[in-house]
Amino acid sequence: MDEEAIVKLLVDYWPAVYAVAFILFIALFRLVSGASKQRPFLDPAVFKPLILAEKKQITHNTVWLRFKLPSPTQKIGLPIGQHISFLGKVGPSLGPCIIISHADSSSPLTGCH
């Protein structure tokens, strides 16, 4: 095929050429950006286990806790202004389960902890 024939094909079929190029661009963009996306850790319907990574006693009745998420790139997924509920057993006898709600002090975009 000579150069004139290629130019004629591009001129005659330019909408199709641009449409295919656009679709390939969108598919590549989704492939690249979707590879790093994970679902947020929190699910309002399910309590999930967490590992306590760090604990600091601030005062006699205040404790700073840092929990480790399952994946280093995962986000907590708690919207600003919302509270998180913890379900656990307290005390040496590990009696009945209690639920305590607290405000998160980290950004919703913070990963790892």
Can you tell me about this structure?
With 113 residues, the protein is of the alpha+beta class. The chain has 2 domains: 3-34; 51-103, no CATH class. Helices cover 27% and strands 27% of the residues. The protein has 2 helices and 4 strands. The chain has helices at residues 3-12, 14-34, and strands at 51-59, 62-68, 83-89, 97-103. A two-stranded antiparallel sheet has the order 1-2. A two-stranded antiparallel sheet has the order 3-4. A hairpin with a 2-residue loop joins strand 1 and strand 2 (62-68). The radius of gyration is 26 Å and the shape is rod-shaped. The mean pLDDT is 77.
Work out the radius of gyration. Answer: 26 Å
Please give the domain count.
2
Low-confidence stretches: none
Distance between the termini: 60 Å
Mean pLDDT: 77
Per-chain topology:
Layout lengths: L2 H10 L1 H21 L16 E9 L2 E7 L14 E7 L7 E7 L10
Antiparallel strand pairs: 1-2, 3-4
Quick tags:
two-stranded antiparallel sheet; 2 domains; 113 residues; alpha+beta
Concise account of the structure shown:
This protein has helices at residues 3-12, 14-34, and strands at residues 51-59, 62-68, 83-89, 97-103. It is built from 2 helices and 4 strands; from the N terminus they run H-H-E-E-E-E.
